[in-house]
UniProtKB/TrEMBL annotation:
Subunit details: Myosin is a hexamer of 2 heavy chains and 4 light chains.
Residue ranges annotated for the EF-hand domain, each copy included: 23-58, 93-128
Pfam families: EF-hand_6
Upper lineage: Eukaryota, Metazoa, Chordata, Craniata, Vertebrata
PANTHER family: MYOSIN REGULATORY LIGHT CHAIN 2
Name this protein carries in UniProt: MLRB protein
InterPro entries noted in UniProt: EF-hand-dom_pair, EF_Hand_1_Ca_BS, EF_hand_dom, Myosin_RLC
Keywords for this protein: Calcium, Metal-binding, Repeat
SMART domains hit by this protein: EFh
Single GO MF descriptor: calcium ion binding
SUPFAM superfamilies: EF-hand
Length: 165
């Protein structure tokens, strides 16, 4: 019997792919694909600018984009992308992780997102929600009178199981 080949370890200890479950890796891959607007296998400043524009944020400063790209040790391919998320998520609780995902759609940090907007994003991006799934979400978390979704409360319930008063 031939000896098993040792898995090559990535600098810093362990393989980044072992930090996540297969389903999570698939979700990160979908997010990466959405952000890699020019489909070259790397996320660069132009891809980030286009991604922000697609989310309705048009006036992103060049410095802001440069700072994001500088966080990576080099060109941002999928493995680097996953590693960066792995480092950011290490030690965060699920509630904080989910909150951070919602904050992307809430650049002013108000804690609310237009229900119509989140519905459109959920039904048109990546793992698309069906109308029924949207209806279930809004039945459980109805938007307020101005049509906003309180995502902080939503995140709390997702991670803790019941609404806080």
């Amino acid at each position: 019997q031939a000896p098993k080949k040792a898995k090559k370890k990535i600098e810093g200890g362990s393989n980044v792919f072992s930090m996540f479950e297969q389903s999570q890796i698939q979700e990160f891959k979908e997010a990466f694909t959405i952000m890699d607007q020019n489909r070259d296998g790397f996320i660069d400043k132009a891809d980030l600018r286009d991604t922000f524009a697609a989310l309705g944020r048009l006036n992103v400063k060049n410095e802001e984009l440069e700072d994001m790209v500088k966080e990576a040790p080099g060109p941002i391919n999928f493995t680097v992308f996953l590693t960066m998320f792995g480092e950011k998520l290490k030690g965060t609780d699920p509630e904080e992780t989910i909150l951070n995902a919602f904050k992307i759609f809430d650049p002013e940090g108000k804690g609310r997102i237009k229900a119509d907007y989140i519905k459109e994003m959920l039904m048109t991006q990546a793992d698309r929600f069906s109308q029924e799934e949207i209806n279930q979400m809004f039945a459980a978390f109805p938007p307020d009178v101005s049509g906003n979704l309180d995502y902080k409360n939503l995140c709390y319930v997702i991670t803790h199981g019941e609404e806080k008063d």
